[in-house]
Amino acid sequence: MAKKRVVQTTAATPTAVPASVDAFANGMGRVVSGELNYLVRRMMQYGAEGVTAGDGQWPVARLEGESVTAEVVFTPQAQSPQVTLPEDQVEQYCKRMWYLVKSMDDLTADCWDALVSQWVAEAQSPDAKVWVSVDQILGYRGLASHRTGRRGGYTAEQRAAVTESLLRIMSMRLLVLSMEVLEEHDDGNGGRLILPVRRQMGGPALEVGLDLSQTDFLGNTEIKALLIRPGEMFARYYMGAGRPVALLSQKALTYQPYRAFWEKRLTRYFAYSWDRKSHLGVERQQHTVAELLEAVHEQPHQVRPGATKERLHKALRQLTQDRVIAGWDYVTDTWNEYDRPFHHWVSAWLEARIEVFAPEQVRQFYQLALPDTTAGVVMGPLLPPRIKMAGQLTRKTVVTLRHHFGLTQDEFARELGVSRPLINLIESGKRSISKKLQAALTNWMARKDRGQPVTALPPADL
User: Fold this and answer.
1) CB-based contacts of 335-344 (< 8 A; 24+ apart in sequence)
2) Which residues pair with 74 in a beta bridge?
3) Which of 60, 138, 309, 453 is the most buried (most CB within 10 A)?
């Protein structure tokens, strides 16, 4: 199956990035595409992949999406393009930019999300700038500060890593070749129409007003705080339709870049997907397995594809537990774990569709923002729909429920008030479900469906 690339290599010389482009005539336009935000974060996650040398040998990445085409140039002139670099230092600056670009990773995307989160929390208008400290960024990532040492707080290594990520973001200058914005126009009868139009725009990804930094005797710079505002193409988006995307992306910050990068990247993907397809309703959206793997930047393991499948299931269960999503399930007739062939099942699995349910805060935002005609169906917050619609509970029901909520057999047994061996016997088909156990399962599902907490019960003979 062909894989759609988000960051594409281009041999052509990139278009020169202008100092500024007035994309919003008379101040009336506003960005409606959240795709640029998602593409930029993906580029940060994947580092130097697809980045080529442009004019002056500065690193250049080309971003291709359904509604936006853009180029990102990494240059020390991103904040002040009118500044001329000394000719004898250009090569040194180029090497520095390439080093920064090649070492981009999930931490860079984390820093971007933290900057945006703090700006969204404090800014009162799209033009406002707010102070963000390095310690705040580390706090957003869920890291604990240290109380020992001369300085206390976070370690020098943690601050240095964030400083490098901030330098990457500050050096990013965008040229948006084509993106959709909304503008007001005279309808000819004294009224106003809001119409989508295609516009070009350019500018830094992050506008920096002031920075508090210090340089040691070896020339190493440590940033302590920045006075920032997202670039023009981002600020208006985050102040409006992109606000829930920014808030939900905060949750991605708490996942560790190495151990939990599946959860981190899927959180960002779902936030983008709900924004992108909000006009179709966000209560439930479908994604192929191939699309979810593409979002994580993974392929099925050649020798053990089952391990990849289980890792995806584990990530979705964790996101359900953390309320990033309200639940998930395979779409009926696209995948059946119990009827799949023993061999050669991977291609069918990649085409299978997974239905993902939006959490309450996402549903509430878009239901307020959208016309009534787009309101989705009323549904429980957690249970898979095929389980809710099922009649008699079976062995497959027990397995599906336990996997869906990310419970071990021991945890599931404690919540039901039964022994773990009983759950093992039922899942293996060696024992049927008694009427008492069926009643316990029904009661447990009802509480889960209402979002009520389920505590452990003493074992009973069921």
Assistant:
1) 335/289, 338/396
2) 172
3) 60
DSSP 3-state percent helix, strand, coil across the chain (nearest 5) = 45, 20, 40
- Amino acid identity of residue 370, one-letter, is L
Q: What is the pLDDT of residues 126-184, one digit of tens each?
A: 888 999 888 888 887 766 665 544 455 678 888 888 888 898 899 999 888 887 766 66
What ranges in 7-89 are assigned the alpha helix state H? 35-45
Per-residue pLDDT tens over the stretch 219-271: 567 788 889 898 887 887 787 767 767 777 777 888 887 788 899 889 888 88
Is the pTM value of this prediction over 0.85?
no
- The CA distance from 59 to 282, in Å, is 37
Q: Which amino acid is at 400?
A: T
Half-sphere exposure of 24 (CA within 13 A, CB side): 15
Q: How many CB atoms lie within 10 A of CB 387?
A: 19
Q: Which residues of 251-286 are buried (b: 16+ CB within 10 A; e: fewer)?
A: bbbbbeeeebbbbbbbbbbbbbbbbbebeebbbbbe
* DSSP annotation string for 139-161: HHTTPPPB--SSS-BS-HHHHHH
H/E stretch holding 163: helix 156-170
CA-to-CA distance for 145 and 166, rounded, in angstroms? 20
Cα Rg, the chain, nearest whole Å:
25
CA atoms within 13 A on the CB side of 183: 15
* CA–CA separation, 44 and 14 (whole Å): 19
In the structure encoding, which two tokens stand for residue 43, read together?
Answer: 């580029």
Closest CA to 225 of 205, 211, 214: 211
CB 246 within 8 A of CB 120: yes
What letter represents residue 87's amino acid? E
